[in-house]
Amino acid sequence: MIRWGVLGLGRIAHKFVQDLQTVPDVELLAVASTSQERADEFAAQYGAKHAYGSYEDLLTCEGLDVVYIATTHNHHFENTLLCLNAGIAVLCEKPFAMNAGQVRQMVETARSKQVFLMEALWSRFMPSVQKARELAENQAIGRVKGLRADFGFIAPVVPEKRMYNKALGGGSLLDIGIYPLFLSYVFLGVPQTIKATAVFGSTGVDEQCGMVLTYAENQLAVLNSTVVSKTETDAVLYGETGNLYLPGRFHEGDSVVHQPADGEPQTFTFSRMTWGYDYEAEHVSDCLRRKKTESPLWSLDDSLNLIGLLDAVRAEAGIVYEEDK
């Protein structure tokens, strides 16, 4: 039995815990918020045994195996170190932290203390993405030549809320642009060059971000994120003998289409009754049972590489946060 705690009880925490309840041999042991009332309500709703009105108090819970951190981006660094320094394993929401300097310190702490740490990039564990990787690696579309991916939706302009609040790590790139960038990294690796530009809104956050990446083997990735327009939010991996298509809302999708240059397309579908967070929760639980301190599917080096790409895009596009100073 792997006993979970949840730190930060916003919308995504509800979805994660709903899916956690479908994972075998796990238990929601404790939850923590900055509000005791919110913690009590959350615990009552999902059957957690303990509810804490501060994050520090969560660490006093006996028998806690791992904590899922679901706070805003700007708090990931301090919340993760809080748990790691107490010797408690961590699954922390994406982006792992605000910049590479923070992530390096998180990784160094986890490795020095031999405590499990993983970035909650749930898309890496989706069966559709796993299948697309398998097809690409098996040369189903020949040599990969390029990738196009976007993520866009219309976010209400509420300055105090996370998306438009720079102090909370707001903006399109860190919140949703990370998904197209993640996909380019998974399929093409680390690029040789990065070109990026951003359009900024009235609160100073990037409302749109466009990225063009080139690679050593003459491959190209064209990526986009926006919070002012609803886009297809799909992805295409282009190859010499066909394409792989991840349909709309690819980051949480349940299918992948193999489109050969000659022949009929084949669709692989992976139906589910959950949001999709159960895949990463089950993976983390399995890693803990196997006494691993890193995931073999999304390692700490992968997270370091991804935050490095995010930093490079921000530098190119002029996206700056207080934490960078």
From TrEMBL:
InterPro entries in alphabetical order: Gfo/Idh/MocA-like_OxRdtase_N, Gfo/Idh/MocA_domain, GFO_IDH_MocA-like_dom, NAD(P)-bd_dom_sf
Coiled coil stretches, renumbered: none
Entry keyword set: Oxidoreductase
Top-level division of the source organism's lineage: Bacteria
Segments forming domain Gfo/Idh/MocA-like oxidoreductase N-terminal: 2-119
Domain GFO/IDH/MocA-like oxidoreductase: 129-244
Similarity-based family: Belongs to the Gfo/Idh/MocA family.
Protein name as it appears in the record: Gfo/Idh/MocA family oxidoreductase
Protein species of origin: Larkinella punicea
Source organism phylogeny: Bacteria, Pseudomonadati, Bacteroidota, Cytophagia, Cytophagales
